[in-house]
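User: Okay, second chain of the day. Same drill as before: sequence in, structure tokens out.
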Amino acid sequence: MATLHLIRHGQANFSGEDYDELSPIGKEQAALTGAWLAQRSLVPQRVYAGTLCRQQDSARAALQAAGLELPVLSLPELDELDHQNIIAAWKPEFAEMAALRQWLRAQEQPRRAFQQVFEAAMGAWLAAAPDDARYRESWPRFQARSVQALQQMLRDSSGCGQVWAFTSGGPIAAICQHLLGMDNARTLGLSWTLANASITRILWPASAPERASIQTVNGFAHLEEKPGLLTWR
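Assistant: Same drill. Structure tokens below.
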């Protein structure tokens, strides 16, 4: 059996001007994940990442910490959902990220306030019609391309024993939905629980990728070894 490790990127720069970069904690999380996997001889023969900076940088930090020199294969289907578009469709006054950041700075608990906004916007996105023009990508299309990413990685990784894939919470949740047959509500609930740099493992027989199954979801024991490294946003 081969193993695909779906790894959520390290903590993004929530408080900065550019969310799509790793925070100092995020860089440490990604490096620790790579070193932890390598120490357990879970060394990959192939490494994938979405095209977002926080995904690519997580992959590079993990590989460097593991002492590995492997190319990172870019797979756009692993990119996260467009949270800015989803929020703007739900609340047009937040169409500009600067406006959202200004509002969050005025909140007593900015991270909790953002989570509340995001949950409401995501609920509206999931309930929207597939052809709703407010959204650049519908929920069904996002689900489909996440599953496409899984199928491509399994198909192209024939002969590999270990594969690492650096992505985000949305694609991981959508892939779990596909493999476990969950409904949308449970899938959305799962996405909120996925820790930064957590590992979701998928097993598949090399000769039968269609028989892929989930071994573990949201593993983060490696992050509990050092205080302050377990984060969700």
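The first helix runs from residue 24 to 39.

User: Thanks, on to the next one.
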